[in-house]
Specification:
The protein has 21 helices and 5 strands. By secondary structure, the chain is an alpha/beta fold. The chain folds into 3 domains: 128 residues, Rossmann fold, CATH 3.40.50.620; 90 residues, Serine Threonine Protein Phosphatase 5, Tetratricopeptide repeat, CATH 1.25.40; 207 residues, DNA Cyclobutane Dipyrimidine Photolyase, subunit A, domain 3, CATH 1.10.579.10. A 5-stranded parallel β-sheet has the order 3-2-1-4-5, with helices on both faces. β4, α4 and β5 form a beta-alpha-beta unit. α10 packs antiparallel against α11. The radius of gyration is 24 Å and the shape is globular.
Length: 494
Amino acid sequence: MKVVITWFKRDLRIMDHIPLINAINSGYKVITLFVLEPELWKQKELSIRQYNFQLDCLLELKKQLNSIGGKLVIKTGSVFHVFESLSKTFQIQAIYSHQETWNYWTFQRDIEFKEWTKRKQIPWIESVQNGVIRGLKDRNKWGLNWLKLMKTNLVIAPLSINSVKIKSDDMPKPVQLDVKNDNFNLIQKGGRTEAIKLLSSFTNSRGKYYQIRMSSPLTAMNSCSRLSAHLAFGTISIKEVFQKAESVRVNLNKEDKYWRKSINAFLSRLRWHCHFIQKLEDEPSLEFKPMNRMYEGLRENSNLEFLKLWKKGETGYPMVDACMRCLNSTGWLNFRMRAMLVSFACNNLWIDWKIVAENLGQLFVDYEPGIHYPQVQMQACITGINSVRIYNPIKQGVDHDPNGVFIKKWIPELRETPSEIIHTPWVEKMNTQYKMPIIDELASRKNAARKIYEIRNRKDHVSHTAKILKKHGSRKSKSKGKMLNTSKQLELFL
């Protein structure tokens, strides 16, 4: 039997899914396939948190396909073994999928899979999903091209499909794949229904004060869109989100300054979302190596005892500990607090950025490698192109949780501590349950800055930075190849 295959990866939906439509329009019967790859789930940053979210997404995708007469075929194993087996049973006319922009492992797998399709003489047609461009030569006009793509018409979900209904494997339990398990009970639900619900509530009400509430962990949980995990697994396309937000912006009352500022800020961050993923697409080694190689080996001798206490939320700094305990319990944290956690670990505790990236990746339900690694490097001050910014956790607490409401929620040892000293409880020494600070914040911050500036002040640092900016720096929207002030630009993210 002649068939085509739609290979689902991180695009777990049927709406705005070009590969699925192309497969249906081919005139052949369609196998709608998802391959669960055990080797992928052995990657150090992955855990049961992402696995269970993905499971939710797959169960709903199965229902979506069933509703149009299709069937989601799930196979466990290497993609090479799965496709090789299918090629012995069927005459595969073409494979349709989105380009996957994920981690180094998937990048290398796709390179090898391309070779397999060539040997088999099977066309593999990949579609762009999120505005990230494969084989990009430079960033000139990248923003304009991204915007153009975001404004293209959505591809409506198909009404029917001529599907090949072959036997599907049972979804293996996490323990069968040795998926890292921290006994986390998933709070954020996966699947398209939930994604649409979140988008609707955000654009109808929750997002009104997004710009002014996204930095505080007290308000961010409700005021942020909470779509990051859904974008990571593709239950909703970034085009859908952009066009919904853009329609809100266009129809806003001119007097509604809060909504206008918030929607503009949100639209800006959708662009930045893809901007950072493009960095990893252009340089997959950023998962392992500093963007600026001059910083390689900067933190070789990490204090593993400090790492252990940071992971548990027992550093003696209330805002750091509350954020870490919140993340351990919920799988989510707002951007500023994520940045503070990285900054404190890498700069104050002087832990290697790769160790920090690995441990945080396991905790984030919305783990997105293309954002994760460049951002960790940025907060560790090793990109060379961004300002050296080391967060003061005491000031972050005072600014974003002035009365200690968030701190007291996550640190029961401090619930009876007066608000006046909640950010520095060691000053009064009235609480013996809570740990004393494991390091001197000011001294460690100054020491980190000194070591970083020793590298930044080297004569050859300028030439290294210029090369990085040329490759990864953003451009003005009406580009003539000029670069924006990157450090200023990134204030959008802080």
